[in-house]
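Hi support team,

I submitted a single chain yesterday and got back a structure, but I'm not sure I'm reading the token output correctly. Could someone confirm the output below corresponds to the sequence I sent? I've pasted both exactly as they appear in my results page.

Thanks,
R.
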Amino acid sequence: MPNLNKVMLIGRLTRDPDLRYAANGLGICKLGLAVNRSWHDKSGEKRREETTFIDVDAFGKQAETLGQYLQKGKSVYVEGRLKLDSWEDKQTGQKRTKLGVALESFQFIDGGGESSGVTPRSQDNALAPSESTASASGDDDIPF
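Hi R., thanks for writing in. Yes, this is the structure output for that exact sequence:
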């Protein structure tokens, strides 16, 4: 039987991205995402709303980009897969589990990236490698 584990979300960050690096140099970025759902009750008179809070983990270059350009309150589109983390609570000894999303791809919704006028959070790595090589070739190099 075939299986499918795919998640697509659009939401706002509940906190600034937490970018850290593993011992092997791999970037790991943890995001908190709030996704809203609204509807009208059965009578159609009262509007209801619920918010779901989701933890998203990104790895590698994507993690570094998210950590550099996003901040609390910004919207982002995320594609990924559900993952179940389990561990033993050190204080109580009980087994704990948490359902989250492992990011596979993303897209900035509002204010993400250089083209929209947002400046990076970290100035020491202001441009991604592809952007720095593109901006390094000036108009003087164009043959026409």
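A quick pointer for reading it: Residues 120 and 127 are 8 Å apart (CA to CA). Let us know if anything else looks off.

Best,
Support desk
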